[in-house]
């Protein structure tokens, strides 16, 4: 399936996790939609496109396991969580319980709004290496106090590429009467997932990552019980709408001024593309290959994995610790010198290399990476273990 993607063939692309990559058939549909927009922008923006958005939301809702009126398209998960964090009513001393494994941009988001309200964003330490799911859950709840108002947790972490037990954590949170907010940016199209299987109040995910849409398509799910307090970041024509729909939530959040929402309209094509190519099987194979490559890299490089190398904790990404004095130079060397696109991530004072495994990747891509790392070890640029 490599030929179905637009990626530069001279680059060994091991970083699907950051921004995904759009297959040619989906990108062609995207361009057709943009052409429709430009041929008659008024009708498209105020009528035709809005009707198509409703249809796309319905198909997305079916795919992720929620009702159409509970989900709205947004440009990215950061926009979605900013919407929630700005809306949530925090009092001085309130706490948002999270982990120390969260995405940096969203840590800053919660810091900002908590500081404005004299509340606290709690980065509860998750001990690495993780020994078991039970240990991780125990670590997390050590951060709970009587001041905890909500939990915010990643379904799959960004820097460390770990699948966290959000179903168990959300179930316990609801027993404690807490609001549950999950960042699932990496989840749709990546691991088996249905929102209805989790006791979650608010969930965001990206369509432009593992669902392979063009950039700028993500979603925010809010269950009906909480929609009344989640305000839009931008007040526009949806407020006191002259033509209200059945959902004030959709009216408020879907309309945010003039924008090109063509990427969102490709989501049905993404779902069709995955169904056509039996993506459940494709993703399962990629997850198994990730486990094999992770085990091989550990044996060859001698590092300690930050979790058991099992599907319980790993999807189609794997992060492993690397020691370097210059992480930016390391990333540049891998790209400029060896033509390998792979992120060097940072969290809690540690650096990691994170590789992704997608359908177009082959074993030789990872052997190339391994040989390049061994060259850099020999040159004294990095070390492991």
Q: What topology does this entry show?
A:
Elements: E1 12-13, H1 16-19, H2 24-39, H3 41-64, E2 71-74, H4 77-87, E3 95-99, H5 104-116, E4 120-124, H6 133-141, E5 148-154, H7 166-175, E6 179-183, E7 202-206, E8 218-222, H8 248-254, H9 262-265, H10 267-276, H11 279-301, E9 317-324, H12 327-337, E10 340-341, E11 344-347, E12 350-356, H13 363-378, E13 382-383
Parallel strand pairs: 1-10, 3-4, 3-5, 5-6, 6-7
Antiparallel strand pairs: 2-8, 7-8, 9-12, 9-13, 11-12
Helix pairs in contact: 2-3, 4-5, 11-13
Describe this structure in words.
The chain has 385 residues and is of the alpha/beta class. It has two domains: 2-24 and 278-383, Aspartate Aminotransferase, domain 1 (Alpha-Beta Complex), CATH 3.90.1150.10; 27-273, Type I PLP-dependent aspartate aminotransferase-like (Major domain) (Aspartate Aminotransferase, domain 2, 3-Layer(aba) Sandwich). It is 41% helix and 16% strand. The chain contains 13 helices and 13 strands. It has helices at 16-19, 24-39, 41-64, 77-87, 104-116, 133-141, 166-175, 248-254, 262-265, 267-276, 279-301, 327-337, 363-378; strands at 12-13, 71-74, 95-99, 120-124, 148-154, 179-183, 202-206, 218-222, 317-324, 340-341, 344-347, 350-356, 382-383. The strands form three sheets. A seven-stranded mixed β-sheet has the order 2-8-7-6-5-3-4, sandwiched between helices. Strands 11-12-9-13 form a four-stranded antiparallel β-sheet. A two-stranded parallel ribbon has the order 1-10. Helix 2 (24-39) packs antiparallel against helix 3 (41-64) and helix 4 packs parallel to helix 5. The model has no long low-confidence stretch (mean pLDDT 97).
């Amino acid at each position: 399936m490599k030929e179905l993607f637009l990626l530069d063939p001279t680059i060994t692309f091991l970083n699907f996790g950051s921004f995904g990559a759009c297959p040619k058939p989906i990108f062609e549909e995207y361009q057709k939609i943009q052409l429709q927009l430009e041929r008659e922008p008024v009708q498209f923006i105020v009528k035709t496109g809005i009707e198509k958005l409703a249809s796309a939301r319905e198909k997305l809702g079916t795919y992720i396991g929620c009702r159409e009126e509970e989900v709205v398209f947004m440009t990215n998960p950061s926009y979605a969580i900013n919407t929630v964090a700005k809306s949530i009513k925090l009092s001085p001393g309130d706490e948002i319980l999270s982990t120390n494994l969260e995405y940096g941009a969203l840590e800053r988001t919660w810091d900002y709004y908590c500081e404005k309200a004299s509340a606290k964003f709690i980065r509860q330490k998750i001990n690495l290496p993780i020994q078991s799911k039970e240990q991780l859950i125990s670590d997390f709840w050590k951060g709970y106090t009587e001041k905890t108002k909500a939990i915010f947790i990643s379904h799959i972490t960004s820097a460390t590429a770990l699948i966290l037990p959000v179903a168990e954590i959300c179930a316990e949170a609801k027993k404690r009467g807490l609001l549950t907010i999950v960042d699932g940016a990496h989840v749709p199209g990546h691991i088996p997932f249905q929102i209805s299987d989790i006791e979650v109040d608010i969930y965001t995910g990206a369509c432009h990552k593992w669902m392979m849409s063009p950039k700028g398509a993500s979603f925010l799910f809010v269950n009906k019980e909480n929609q009344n307090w989640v305000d839009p970041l931008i007040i526009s024509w949806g407020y006191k709408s002259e033509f209200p729909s059945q959902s004030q939530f959709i009216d408020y959040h879907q309309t945010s001024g003039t924008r090109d929402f063509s990427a969102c309209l490709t989501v049905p094509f993404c779902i069709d593309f995955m169904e056509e190519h039996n993506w459940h099987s494709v993703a399962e194979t990629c997850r198994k290959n990730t486990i094999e490559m992770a085990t091989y890299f550990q044996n060859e490089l001698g590092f300690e994995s930050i979790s058991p190398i099992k599907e319980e904790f790993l999807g189609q990404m794997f992060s492993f610790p690397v020691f370097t004095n210059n992480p930016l130079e390391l990333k540049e060397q891998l790209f400029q010198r060896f033509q390998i696109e792979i992120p060097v991530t940072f969290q809690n004072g540690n650096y990691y290399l994170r590789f992704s495994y997608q359908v177009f990747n082959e074993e030789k891509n990872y052997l190339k990476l391994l040989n390049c790392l061994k060259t850099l070890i020999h040159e004294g640029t990095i070390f492991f273990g």
